[in-house]
Write a structure and sequence with these properties.
Blueprint lengths: L1 H14 L15 E2 H12 L2 H32 L12 H48 L1 H21 L2 E3 L2 E2 L1 E2 L1 H27 L20 E7 L5 H4 L4 H17 L3 E8 L7 H10 L6 H8 L6 H7 L3 E5 L9 H5 L3 E3 L18 H13 L7 E7 L25 H5 L4 H5 L2 H26 L4 E7 L5 H4 L6 E8 L2 H6 L6 E2 L9 E3 L3 H9 L1
Parallel strand pairs: 1-4, 5-9, 5-10, 6-13, 7-8, 7-9
Antiparallel strand pairs: 2-3, 6-11, 6-12, 10-11
Helix pairs in contact: 1-4, 2-3, 2-5, 3-4, 6-10, 8-16, 9-10, 13-16
Length: 527
């Protein structure tokens, strides 16, 4: 029985795909070429090197299995495989996410459990391969004949293209292809930094004088406002489109009644499911920032950002970042005159997981601290609205703006409804919670513009990325909606050549730009 379990463990590890969508019972009814080659090598070696190869092979297979599981997690959450070069730096944000979702004790327990699981898988896989090696050697003649038969069967199935299901060829080589793919990815990642530095060195606006920048927006307050996880699926997927669309249609009517007009399209984000800072950096810098190394290289450079262009042109530049809960030196790179984070906006209400505070309080604080200040210069504000950040529970709701105060009024909302753990145990509940947070964020922005907007306000409203494939399903694009709202017809006439659609909801045929194209087109259009 122990030998049978060892075979099952090794074969399951070899046949396990690195994407959850490809995992079916039929996936494990295939012939792994790695097992055939492994047995052949072990049979050909003398006793001492055979044992060493078995130990190394078992440990390597254990690590490859862990890599497959990590890939499954990355595909499920971020819609891409794990990058061994860049993604180690995501460990800290992951721990922060766990801490704010399930508490410090739960996060520590999860980290300890993950470490123990890695050790257990490597050790068990090594012992399994050693046991099977002894069995193969003890039955050498039978093992040799079986290996020869399996070689013939594998090559026959490969030549015929035989499949048990469309995504699972009988002649399997999943683990070998995984290792090869990550090796190629690692080499490409190591070369990427030099290529990115060369791209960053080219900047058409680097030396443009401030009096020539953004001349068509003089005197305007420009609010660059990101809604967390507001992706194309929120307005087109049948799971969300009807109710989110109703909020957008109502928003159109209300904004029109207040004298505003708007234009909308889509941007393709460099990330999905997470990594909001990559999207913010891409839009601001005009460079495609799709990994952590590119981000670190960018924020240590003197690249002109959209924010710093406004600052050069004599706007007061503000970063409103309620999700920032620790030191954030990147604020200097972006060129903010002032950064408002989770701790310096006067919020006395309860914390909301990852969001820290409701969007309504974030906008109220901006209004009180900057927008309503008498005698001020025009403001360019980069605002991150985080209520729609996973785990989407608990959910705040819109209240009278006069009642927001110091945020303590939101206390009952932080304990109402289901907990994040309860929501995430049920995919349908998680999807419903996601939709409702997007509705809340959109309604809050529309209500803010109605109440505090004026003739000099220009709102640029967009998503940072799509939510995780857990919410969108497989195959979703990386597109996010973007909208420009203004009472000044001259502002919208400037973007007429962009051919964006009227209203705050882009239709399916609206233009789609890569997010890194926005900075240069915006600066060219308004300068």
């Amino acid at each position: 029985m122990v030998t049978a379990l060892a075979w099952l463990l090794v074969l399951a590890a070899l046949l396990l795909p690195n994407e959850l969508a490809r995992v079916t019972p039929w996936t494990f009814l295939r012939i792994p070429v790695e097992a055939i080659l492994g047995v052949a090598v072990l049979l050909a070696l003398p006793a001492r090197p055979r044992r060493l190869v078995a130990i190394l092979g078992g440990a390597g297979l254990g690590l490859a299995t862990i890599l497959k599981v990590v890939d499954i997690g990355f595909f499920t959450v971020l819609d891409r495989p794990f990058d061994p070069v860049f993604d180690g730096s995501l460990f800290d944000p992951a721990v922060v996410f766990l801490t704010q979702s399930v508490g410090r004790a739960g996060a520590i327990g999860a980290v300890i459990g993950a470490v123990l699981l890695v050790v257990a898988v490597v050790v068990l896989m090594t012992f399994a391969v050693l046991r099977l090696t002894r069995q193969v050697v003890a039955h050498e003649r039978t093992a040799t004949r079986a290996t020869a038969a399996l070689v013939l069967a594998w090559f026959s199935c490969a030549a015929l293209g035989a499949h048990v299901v469309p995504s699972a060829p009988i002649a399997a080589s999943d683990t070998a292809m995984l290792v090869k793919g990550h090796a190629v990815q690692t080499r490409a990642s190591l070369r990427d930094q030099r290529a990115f530095e060369a791209l960053a060195a080219v900047d058409a606006f680097r030396d443009t004088p401030g009096d020539q920048l953004l001349t068509a927006l003089r005197g305007k307050d420009v609010l660059l406002t990101f809604i967390e996880s507001y992706g194309r699926d929120a307005i087109e997927d049948p799971l969300y489109a009807a109710k989110v669309g109703a909020v957008l249609d109502d928003g159109n009517r209300r904004l029109a009644a207040a004298g505003y007009d708007s234009r909308s399209a889509f941007l393709t984000s460099p990330t999905a499911g997470g990594g909001s800072w990559l999207a913010h950096a891409t839009l601001n810098s005009g460079l495609w920032v799709n990994n952590q190394q590119r981000y670190r290289t960018l924020v240590s450079s003197d690249r002109l950002t959209l924010t710093s262009a406004f600052r050069r042109a004599d706007w007061r530049t503000i970063g409103v970042k309620p999700g920032v809960t620790q030191a954030w030196p990147e604020g200097r790179f972006y060129g903010y005159d002032r950064v408002y984070d989770a701790y310096n906006v006067g919020y006395q209400g309860p914390p909301f997981p990852l969001a820290t505070m409701p969007d309504q309080y974030t906008l109220t604080a901006f209004e009180r601290l900057e927008h309503s200040t008498p005698g001020r210069a025009p403001v360019m504000a980069d605002i991150a609205l985080t209520s729609s950040h996973a785990p989407w529970a608990p959910l705040p709701h819109l209240i009278d703006w006069n009642d927001v105060g110091d945020g303590s009024v939101f206390g009952p909302m932080a304990t109402a409804g289901e907990s994040p753990e309860e929501v995430w145990r049920d995919r349908d509940k998680a999807r419903d919670a996601y939709r409702r947070t997007i509705e809340y964020s959109l309604s809050t922005v529309v209500s803010y513009v109605e109440r505090y907007g004026d003739d000099d306000m220009v709102l640029i409203l967009l998503g940072d990325h799509q939510p995780a494939p857990f919410i969108t399903g497989d195959g979703a694009t990386h597109d996010v909606p973007i909208t420009i709202v203004s009472r000044d017809r001259a502002v919208l006439d400037r973007v007429a050549a962009w051919q964006w659609r009227e209203g705050i909801k882009p239709d399916p045929g609206a233009p789609v730009w890569r997010m890194d194209m926005f900075r240069d087109r915006f600066l060219s259009t308004f300068s």
